[in-house]
């Protein structure tokens, strides 16, 4: 009985120490600007929760110690509704009202619209943006935290050429700073590996009736349609409508992973057999762990975007820890070189790169997967960097 009593006293004392340490810790605020509503919400919600999960690892152990000072990490997320104007409003609020100087700016529209402000204000920012305009060799305070299409598309299109017999292709992308550059990247690669580009189609992001677009596509008689960087909710809508209009050929998605959202909007039958790029291997133990944490918080499975954002958040937090001063954003960005290489949540290697694509090492290079949708679930077929 005395042993039990002593153990309880010891445990109570430890909890008191941790509580006191937490109470005395300073607060380190990290902002998240992402689409928490609308078509990009699956990405945005997964991203905000990924940052929170990564931060909670530190908070649960008493906080992050930097330069001899301990910090509790507070994640503040605002909805930009996948619009540049929404991103600017969220950025101004984080900077001016919340006093945040370290941010995750998720999407290309947001990152491109905020690039100049980030540099002028010396905000340490990470993004998962595909646009080549978001992070360049001249960037000083913006880092990209996952491989870009420039990095992974050559390997992916080569895989498709080796495994897909169909060759008559139409490209479909949003008509903006994401879709237009992406189509330009895809076209020469598809041609290099023997695909015939029949047409390239663009649509406005607020489109809900795709029948006119699909009618134009089907008039070209393709046997492959690549939906490119189409967002999650929109992808499922396009897939459903294109099947309803009689297309039975191969559907491919070479960017913006969203298999579960596609199935939810299109139905299992319409989505069956699609080839999709994936950030996650559903069978991987590391992915299952963070997916379970997300489900516990949100009550549903996360979009795969949670994987690169979790990995990128872990790199950012480690860079802050190694910077020696979390208020000096120049030191935080410089510490990415110290933080990498790291092991990803799925056991792959994360390295610093970008010299071959943008002329500067400002990207966290990650591993990409390719898979298919079978009975409503993504199944990994291969991987590449």
Give an account of the 3D structure:
There is one protein chain. With 385 residues, the protein is an alpha/beta fold. It has 2 domains: 2-146 and 284-353, Response regulator (Rossmann fold); 149-278 and 370-384, Rossmann fold, CATH 3.40.50. It contains 14 helices and 16 strands. The strands form 3 sheets. The chain has a 7-stranded mixed beta sheet. Strands 2-3-1-4-5-6 form a 6-stranded mixed beta sheet, with helices on both faces. Helix 5 packs across helix 6 (179-192) and helix 8 (232-244) crosses helix 9. The radius of gyration is 22 Å and the shape is globular. The N and C termini lie far apart (58 Å).
Based on the structure given, which CATH architecture of the largest domain is correct? 3-Layer(aba) Sandwich
Task: Determine the fraction of residues in helical runs and give it as a percent range.
Answer: 40-55%
Low-pLDDT ranges: 1-5, 7-12, 17-23
Q: Summarize the main sheet.
A: 7 strands, mixed
Topology overview:
Elements: H1 2-24, E1 26-34, H2 41-59, E2 64-66, E3 69-79, H3 84-97, E4 102-105, H4 108-121, E5 124-127, E6 142-144, H5 149-163, E7 168-174, H6 179-192, E8 196-203, H7 211-219, E9 224-226, H8 232-244, E10 250-253, H9 259-266, H10 268-271, E11 275-278, H11 285-298, H12 306-323, H13 329-334, H14 336-339, E12 342-343, E13 349-353, E14 363-365, E15 368-374, E16 377-384
Parallel strand pairs: 1-3, 1-4, 4-5, 5-6, 7-8, 7-9, 9-10, 10-11
Antiparallel strand pairs: 2-3, 11-15, 12-13, 13-14, 15-16
Helix pairs in contact: 2-11, 2-12, 3-4, 5-6, 8-9
């Amino acid at each position: 009985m005395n042993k039990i009593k002593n153990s309880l006293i010891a445990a109570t004392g430890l909890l008191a120490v941790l509580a006191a340490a937490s109470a005395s810790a300073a607060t380190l605020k990290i902002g998240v600007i992402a689409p928490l509503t609308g078509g990009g919400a699956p990405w945005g919600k997964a991203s905000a929760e990924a940052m929170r999960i990564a931060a909670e690892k530190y908070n649960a152990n008493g906080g992050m110690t930097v330069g001899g000072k301990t910090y509790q990490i507070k994640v503040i997320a605002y909805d930009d509704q996948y619009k540049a104007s929404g991103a600017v409003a969220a950025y101004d609020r984080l900077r001016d009202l919340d006093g945040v100087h370290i941010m995750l700016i998720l999407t290309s529209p947001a990152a491109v619209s905020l690039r100049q402000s980030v540099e002028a204000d010396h905000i340490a920012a990470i993004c998962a943006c595909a646009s080549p305009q978001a992070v360049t060799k001249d960037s000083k305070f913006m880092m990209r935290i996952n491989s870009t299409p420039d990095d992974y598309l050559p390997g992916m299109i080569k895989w498709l050429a080796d495994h897909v017999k169909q060759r008559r292709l139409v490209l479909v992308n949003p008509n903006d700073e994401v879709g237009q550059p992406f189509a330009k990247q895809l076209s020469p690669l598809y041609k290099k590996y023997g695909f015939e580009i029949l047409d390239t189609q663009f649509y406005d992001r607020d489109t809900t009736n795709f029948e006119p677009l699909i009618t134009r596509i089907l008039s070209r008689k393709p046997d492959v349609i690549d939906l490119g960087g189409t967002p999650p909710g929109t992808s499922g809508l396009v897939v459903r409508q294109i099947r309803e209009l009689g297309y039975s050929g191969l559907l491919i998605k070479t960017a913006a992973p969203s298999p579960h959202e596609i199935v939810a909007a299109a139905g299992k039958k319409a989505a069956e057999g699609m080839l999709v790029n994936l950030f996650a291997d559903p069978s991987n133990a590391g992915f299952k762990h963070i997916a379970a944490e997300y489900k516990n918080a949100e009550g549903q499975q996360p979009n795969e975007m949670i994987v690169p954002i979790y990995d990128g958040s872990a790199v950012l937090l480690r860079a802050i820890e190694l910077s020696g001063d979390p208020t000096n954003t120049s030191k935080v960005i410089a510490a990415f070189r110290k933080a990498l290489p790291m092991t990803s949540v799925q056991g792959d290697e994360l390295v610093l790169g970008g010299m071959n694509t943008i002329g500067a090492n400002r990207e966290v290079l990650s591993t990409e997967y390719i898979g298919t949708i079978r009975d409503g679930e993504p199944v990994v077929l291969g991987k590449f960097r």
